Amino acid sequence: MRVLICPQAFVGTLTAVQAAEAIAAGWRTRAPADELTLAPLSAGGPGFLDVLGAALDGLHLGVTVSDPLGREVPAAVLIVQHAGRRTAYIEAAQSIGLHHLAAHDRNPLLTSSFGVGQLIAAAVTEGADRVVVSFGGGATNDGGAGLLAALGVGDQRSLACGAAGLAGLADDALLGVHELAARLRPVELVLATEDDSPLLGARGTSAEHALRKGAAPHDVQALESGLGRFTEVLRRALPPGKDLLSGLDRRIDREPGSGAGGGIGYALMALGARRISATDIVLQGWGFDDLLSGSDLVITGEGCFDWRSLTAGTVYAVASAASRRGLPTVVLAGRVEVGRRETMALGIAGSYAVAEDRTSVAAAIADPVGTLAARAARLAGTWSVR
Q1: What is the C-alpha to C-alpha distance for residues 286 and 274, in angstroms, rounded to an integer?
Q2: pTM greater than the 0.90 cutoff
Q3: What does the pLDDT look like over 252-275, one tens digit per residue?
Q4: Of 76, 136, 67, residue with least CA distance to 106
């Protein structure tokens, strides 16, 4: 039997690579004759570069950048040469990830996206004519103001210190952004994310994501006001052009994905970036259709399989692709919070939890590799044709 194992990270416990290896190890204890193919996946958050590095033949360029509070941290840019193009892949979480901060340091009024701008600058310096920036797990909410500062726009003291100072930006605070856009015009900018939230509004990045980044409830309005002022200043400095359908000025802050990465998506879109699915980029990197054609069963997974997994992200993409080929997909997750009726509609043949009840949660956290491998072994006993 040919089994394709393609989980994403079990956030907080296992990377995608570790999860795939644990599932494979457990499966082999019950079905050692089966042919296993490992293709760990990512939806753009921490681990995106590790997954792509395993899928693509590229060069990891080591750099030192700023974390959300301006402290130096190591990071990398993955450079891939293909079909006459030089593509740089950037994982924003390497510089602005929430994991860089202790709980008492998490405050999106103070955290900056400056480090992401440094990563983009490094990619362009290396001659990349296509720069793909992935998002997920970030700690910032500054609309990409810090990113622009790192690329030479405006005054770092007002733009690279987080969202707190954005409400008081002067009308000329973004001098140089027009020149930056012209300089980057030969470079294709790609925003790789599953986050379709806009920058502003009730579904915007402040309302939807700021609390998990450490904001207090009363901070959300201040963050929203700061981003609102930031968009006013940026629109004056870099007019967004007209919407092709309405003929009115384009409102980038309302477009899906502009809220990604605490609004870094907005800054990149203003510079001409287009948005695509981070999951799709990884699937293409693996040549996923070819992997499916050589498989009899597909196993995917994540930390928590819930209602959001049914409409977007890794599990959704894998199940949809496998269903089109008539292949059964099973989900192995830390927790399963959706029922069989919902999963069947996506073509999922079965879903299995590592932590099947409250008493097993502690064991799963204490030994994520062992418990996942053990659950995979039981899964092999059900699904493997021996």
Answers
A1: 22
A2: yes
A3: 999 999 999 999 999 999 999 999
A4: 67
